[in-house]
Amino acid sequence: MNNQLLKGKKGIIFGALDNKSIAWKVAEHAHNEGAEFVLTNAPIALRMGSINELAKKTNSTVIPADATSTEDLENLFKKSMEVFDGKIDFVLHSIGMSVNVRKGRAYYDQKYDWTIKGFDVSSLSFHKTIQTAWKLDALNEWASIIALSYIAAQRVFHSYNDMADNKSFLESITRSFGYHYGKRKNVRINTISQSPTETTAGSGVKGFDGFYKYADDLSPLGNASADDCAKYCITMFSDYTKKITMQNLFHDGGFSFMGISEDVMNNYMNSIKEE
Ligand code: NAI
Fold this sequence. Notes:
Elements: E1 10-14, H1 22-32, E2 36-40, H2 43-48, H3 51-58, E3 61-62, H4 70-84, E4 88-93, H5 99-102, H6 112-135, E5 139-149, H7 163-185, E6 188-194, H8 200-203, H9 208-218, H10 226-237, E7 248-251, H11 262-274
Parallel strand pairs: 1-2, 1-4, 2-3, 4-5, 5-6, 6-7
Helix pairs in contact: 1-3, 1-10, 4-6, 6-7
Bound molecules: 1,4-dihydronicotinamide adenine dinucleotide.
Residues 14-15, 17, 21-23, 41-42, 45, 66-68, 94-97, 121, 148-150, 194, 196-197, 199-202 line the site of 1,4-dihydronicotinamide adenine dinucleotide (NAI).
């Protein structure tokens, strides 16, 4: 698609690790829609991933930043404004990581150093990013900030672990900072609550295949892909969504409003018959 929806807009995209990353797809679509942007990721991810390939393809600059470091974030926003010779219109926070999940610790047996690390990376980094932009007055009026969330912020998904708490906090920052940034600068802040998606972060959750299949069977439109999510992000960065702020927007093929579906019921009944 190429409707030049983001023509003239400048942005910062966090979190493109490889071509499965949701942020990668957002960068591709943003480029097609006429945006200019800086790509950023943690220094270690820049070494491991393939971001330079994406930068080349989208004609964008890469600036490393560990999103838990306010120093790195300051550097990122200052350098980005130099690259654009002006302020920023959109920011995508596409970052998530839980050490407890990675190391297989259960929710009721967390190692709290790891909990704090995961919280810093997955939630507090969003506040740090927004506060840095605020202090540097780096955003244009009507700029749009998006972070990616998951429905485990509202409902229990047994193996989503401490990431559920991190996503709840992320959505709370969206509301609280959305108020302040909206009131003072007409900047909007939202989260998009995305379907399970096959990416490095997604597949790290225990039992991901089951989550994925169940959500697909339950949702009338089926799971939303990373590509679908990217398209939604583009509309949220565009001027067509100027009055949407402080929201958690479900982008999940209808999953969030379902109780039971024919497919899920049939699979469940068949599994009982087999026992
Ligand atoms: P991904 O693994 O491709 O992206 C996660 C990114 O976070 C990576 O690029 C990683 O380098 C970056 N990151 C980790 N620590 C960082 C740090 N300290 N500083 C800067 N960046 C750091 O996976 P995906 O799925 O694209 O994840 C993007 C977002 O989407 C995350 O917030 C995730 O929780 C969310 N999400 C993912 C779903 C899924 O099933 N994949 C479902 C719903 C939400």
